[in-house]
Amino acid sequence: MALVKSIGASIAGNLEKIREINRRYSRPRISMSTAVRISLLTLRIYLFVLVGLLVYKFITILTQ
Amino acid sequence: MEGDHAVPGPFRARLGRDDRHDAGGITTYAATGAKYGYNLIWFLIILVPVAYYVQEMTVRLGAVTKRGHAEAIFDAFGSFWGWFSLVDLMILDWLTLVTEFIGMTAAMRIFGVPDWLTVLAVCLLMGLIVVNGRYWTWEKIALAFCFLNLIYIPAAFMVRPSVTQIIRDGLVPNFPGGFNGEMFFFLMANIGTTIAPWMLFFQQSSVVDKGMTEKDIPWGRADTWLGAWVTIIVAIFIVLLTGTVLIGVEINDAAQASAAIWEKDKYVGAMMAIGLFDAGFLGAICISLASSWAFGEIFGWAHSLNTKIKEAPWFYANYFFTLVTAGLVVLIPGAPLVLITLFVQVVAVTLLPAALVFLILLLNDKPTMGEYCNSLGQNVIGGAIVITIIFLSTCYGLSALFPSLFQ
Questions:
Q1: How many CA atoms lie within 13 Å of B246's alpha carbon, on the beta-carbon side?
Q2: Helix B69-77 vs helix B197-209: angle between axes, to the nearest 10 degrees?
Q3: Structure confidence at residue B21 (pLDDT)
Q4: Is the distance from CB of B275 to CB of B26 less than 8 angstroms?
Q5: Which of B79, B349, B367 is facing A25, going by the closest CB pair?
Q6: With contacts defined as CB-CB under 8 Å, which chain B residues touch A25?
Q7: Which homologous superfamily does the CATH classification assign to the domain defined by B2-401?
Q8: Using an 8 Å Cβ cutoff, are B257 and B30 in contact?
Q9: What is the CA B84 to chain-centroid distance, rounded?
Q10: I want to staple B244 with a disulfide (CB 3.0 to 4.6 A). Which of A20, B153, B161, B343 is the partner?
Q11: Which residues in chain B land under pLDDT 70?
Q12: What is the interface pTM, i.e. ipTM, of the complex?
């Protein structure tokens, strides 16, 4: 029982830690120049397309 | 950490460059040799500067910021990109670790060692290596395993490759059979295995853990050059080995290559298998640490190999959890190991471009990098390499999803 409590407390502590990390890094520190903005936007589009392809492939495998 | 400052410069930056051969890498080079003989050696030589420029940037970034790659991404780009990189890294590392265990168990099976014993021995050995509480001790042990990677050099000499043929076929750029889809796939695979995303995270974190500073950067650069050459030289000798003995044989994994060579020469086959096990072991050491370091950086846990288990419980718990679960997957009867191997390539494609783009952007962050900021020349070379790697690795990942794409 003590072990379960200890694990529970540990998980709760880490969840709080995640919230703290989100607060600490809520804003990017790097200055958002045009090059940075374009790079991040391109990266988002790239990942969006890639995830789309992954989902498409997954559905294709399921429906075959 | 303090004690490591007493370590002489040339040795402080060593690991991370010499450890690039993992089980997947050995398979790629073995298959390249068996398929194209010596004809793609020139391409491997081109990969030396490619590997150097990418890794030099991680050394510089780590030495200046004293932060691992994951923490640097969180700090500079915010929590969205931070979590994306961290979770992606965790998934990729775990999957790659499974492939390292696949390589190690397959290699030891050649010697009649059962899979469970290999997994158990590897976990115990890797546990013993990290719990000594000293980064430098860990690095020395890991370097000894790196040294074992050189086993491919005498193995290649033993099969007596033709020097004239090596010079004629290997050192002159050529594409045997023309530049077709299959050739493109092999070129992509060779790049993909030379620059993997987990390496960037591992290397930057190791630079931080060993306490490198700005004054160590010149040593780090020299060391990176040396490591890049050693890596490619070993790759070339693997190509020479399979290009001499297994030319024309279709190789699907390095264990199969070891078994095929064993049929022709027991000793050389055994050396190939030992090299494969060693590569898997080195890969496993580095990959499991890459995740643990990254999580420690972000969660603020003690995350140095210079700490004892009691001082850094989460760091070591993460390390052992990743290691043991990956090892257990290989022991599950009927586990989809082929699918996992395939999935590694796809997940890598989601992380590598992001990690490389962040690397270039961070090295252009003048307030942080100061005089160590990328110059125009470095940006041109680094940028061209990064764009090429992203393009080729994306094609490689897509070819894993859609095998007929480049045929």
A1: 31
A2: 100
A3: 66
A4: yes
A5: B79
A6: 74-75, 78-79, 82
A7: Amino acid/polyamine transporter I (1.20.1740.10)
A8: yes
A9: 21
A10: B161
A11: 1-21, 133, 338, 342, 406-407
A12: 0.85
